[in-house]
Specification:
The complex is a heterodimer of chains A (358) and B (292). With 358 residues, chain A is of the alpha+beta class. Helix content of chain A is 24%, strand content 33%. Chain A starts with a strand and ends in an 8-residue tail after the last strand. With 292 residues, chain B is mostly helical. Chain B has a single domain, classed as MetI-like (MetI-like fold, Orthogonal Bundle), CATH 1.10.3720. In chain B, β1 and β2 form a beta hairpin. The longest helix of chain B is centred in the first third of the chain and has 34 residues. Chain B is globular and about 75 Å long. Classes of the chains: A alpha+beta (358), B mainly alpha (292).
Chain lengths: 358, 292
């Protein structure tokens, strides 16, 4: 049971590269926070600074009001689950799980009890005397979680724990992690680059970009109300559609596309209009027309991809849109599909700064 | 049951032939020669030979000088193996932690690998020379009545020191690569689980290095048994009084200096058997404890 507080945390490497540039964050007791961002954005570095595996260049990290900047990793009372499991290959599953407890001078009987309990909870009781190399990926990940659970730490740290698992197992383990965390009510920080994982697991989500927290909040808040272009394009699958536009006072214009817009917008700058694939609908006199390039059938719904006819180019390429529809709409390849959208659900960003305007 | 028969071709045999020829010509044939010679008594000029069964074995193996050489070899090998492994491991662990100037540091430590044992011996000879040797003067200056020409312990010290110095760099390279083969995340998991770096080393790092250590132990024992010949030949030559005679050096001395081919062959056959037995022991009993 603990809260975690980060105050202006920075990490600068000796070569001058800034991995984390000033992060402030308040993590409440029992909360599951997910750090999400593209690779190299500094999310893992931030997590590793909480764990004590990475030195903090400046700023403060507190767990339960106690400053831990210079506390050794073992004394921080945190447990970490690594992407590649990091099990001790020469120890049995039982040895792996009890190692941390043994080093803390806990007596044998209670170590055994804790290990058995955790193993039962994770359904690995049958493997306790096996070596890690005799286990499958999913089982190893369970052992790694077991090793963290038996310690009963103040904070759980997960560093992309599911990235090495196959898709089906990943979904299964995701649900299990969420369930375990709910049950144990341990403050947790979870790092991932997978936005689905982030959305489904998080109590609150921190979108990290270039060493900064771009936006932090509940997953649906970030989805519905992204503060920046980056957050809008990172959260949501399939990705939000972006159309480069300009405002002439009354209309939004992109190449040959022109439609009425009644909100106030600056007229002298490049804008980006963001429409989620599920906010598009088929409409014969709609303002957007899509040349169908590809239809992905996902079962319940279809995703139609294609170039937007008449639109301005995005970074020198044809602007592409994705349209999500029910399974019964199956347009022919190269056919034209007219689409409309609800302007109240559309997002407008300033292109250069990425700031949200509407 | 019907077995599938493939058409035989001579080509695979041609491919393995060079290796087989090398083994036969350079290993099996000399070994067979040694065994054959060990049953013969030959006069010093090689003019007449006589088949004497096991007399060569009885005469040489039971002699005090052979037993002295055998016990020195055992002690010498144990010391050289243990010390060169221990020192190399310590250096490798420390070098692995170095961040600034790591390359220079590592290269410097590997340097001695390029030196041949006889050259190492010659260098040692100079350093322990009573007239110009710095180490000789140093030991005497600090109050140790050091004289490796007269004192058996001091002579043993010299050959052990040079042999260990020569071998540390080889072991260092292997240990370092072994250390770098341990996944970083395993070490990190251990730092979260265990506060004491010393305890971490003995419970995580050392067990994970066990395959490397085992391999190096086999290599080092072989080194101490055979390759140190060059060092002994260029420094003490078994002196004083045969106290630094290793079995290999004695084989050479008796065979080529003493011209006792039969006795020397008998010794080398026994040496072969000792090394064979040692290797079997290592693989049977120690390798079991190694986790790959």
């Amino acid at each position: 049971m603990a809260n975690v507080e980060l105050t202006n945390v920075r990490k600068t490497y000796p070569n001058g590269a800034e991995a984390v540039c000033g992060v402030d964050m308040q993590i409440e007791d029992g909360e599951l926070i997910v750090f999400v961002g593209p690779s190299g954005c500094g999310k893992s570095t931030l997590l590793r600074m909480v764990a004590g595996l990475e030195k903090i260049t400046s700023g403060d990290i507190k767990i339960d009001e106690q400053l831990i900047n210079d506390v050794t990793p073992a004394d921080r009372d945190v447990a970490m689950v690594f992407q590649n499991y990091a099990l001790y290959p020469h120890m049995t599953v039982r040895g792996n799980m009890s190692y941390g407890l043994k080093n803390r001078g806990i007596d044998k009987a209670s170590i055994n009890k804790k290990v058995e309990e955790a193993a039962a909870m994770l359904r690995i009781s049958d493997f306790l005397d096996r070596q890690p190399n005799q286990l499958s990926g999913g089982q190893r990940q369970r052992v790694a979680m077991g090793r963290a659970i038996v310690r009963e730490p103040k904070v759980f740290l997960f560093d992309e724990p599911l990235s090495n698992l196959d898709a089906k197992l990943r979904v299964q383990m995701r649900i299990e992690i969420k369930r375990l965390q709910r049950k144990m009510k341990v403050t947790s920080v979870y790092v991932t680059h997978d936005q689905t994982e982030a959305m489904t697991l998080a109590d609150r989500l921190a979108v990290i970009n270039d060493g900064r927290v771009e936006q932090m909040g509940a997953p649906m808040e970030l989805y519905n109300n992204p503060a920046t272009l980056f957050v809008a394009s990172f959260i949501g699958s399939p990705q939000i559609n972006l159309l480069p536009v300009r405002f002439d006072g009354q209309h939004l214009i992109s190449g040959d596309i022109k439609f009425i817009w009644d909100a106030k917008l600056p007229t002298d700058t490049d804008l980006m209009l963001g429409i989620r694939p599920d906010d598009l609908f088929q409409k014969d006199d709609g303002p957007l027309s899509l040349r169908v390039d590809l239809v992905e059938q996902h079962g319940a719904d279809n995703l139609t991809y294609g170039g937007l006819l008449g639109a301005d180019e995005t970074d020198g390429h044809e602007t592409e849109f994705c349209f999500k529809s029910g399974q019964d709409l199956l347009p022919d390849i190269d056919s034209q599909l007219n689409l409309g959208f609800d302007p109240t659900r559309a997002l407008v960003f300033e292109k250069s700064s990425g700031d949200r305007l509407v | 049951m019907k077995r599938v028969q493939f058409e035989h071709s001579t080509i695979p045999y041609l491919f393995v032939a060079p290796q087989i020829i090398i083994i036969v010509v350079f290993f099996l044939w000399p070994a067979a020669q040694a065994i054959y010679q060990s049953f013969l008594l030959e006069d010093a000029f090689g003019l007449s030979t006589q088949f004497v069964w096991f007399r060569n074995y009885k005469d040489t193996i039971l002699s005090t000088s052979w037993l002295q050489a055998a016990s020195f070899t055992m002690l010498f090998s144990a010391l050289v193996t243990f010390l060169s492994l221990a020192i190399a491991l310590l250096l490798a662990v420390k070098a692995n932690e170095v961040i600034r100037g790591a390359r220079t540091y590592k290269t410097t430590l590997m340097w001695a690998y390029a030196i041949a044992p006889p050259v190492a011996g010659l260098m040692g000879n100079l350093m322990f020379n009573p007239l110009i040797g710095d180490l000789y003067k140093f030991f005497n200056a600090i109050g140790w009545d050091f004289d490796h020409k007269l004192d058996a312990f001091d002579a043993g010290f010299v050959v052990v020191l040079i042999s260990v110095w020569k071998q540390v760099s080889v072991n260092f390279i292997f240990f370092l690569s072994g250390l770098q083969g341990i996944p970083k995340s395993v070490n990190e998991a251990a730092t979260l689980d265990c506060k004491s770096p010393f305890r971490r080393f003995w419970t995580i790092t050392f067990p994970l290095l066990a395959p490397t250590t085992f391999f190096l132990m086999v290599i080092n024992i072989t080194y101490a048994f055979f390759e140190t010949f060059g060092i002994i030949d260029t420094t003490t030559r078994g002196a004083p009084g045969g106290s630094t005679n290793t079995l290999v050096f004695k084989v050479f001395q008796d065979g080529f200096r003493g011209a006792d081919l039969g006795g020397s062959s008998a010794q080398s056959v026994v040496l072969m058997l000792i090394v064979l037995a040692l290797t079997v022991v290592q693989f049977r009993f120690i390798e079991r404890k190694v986790h790959y």
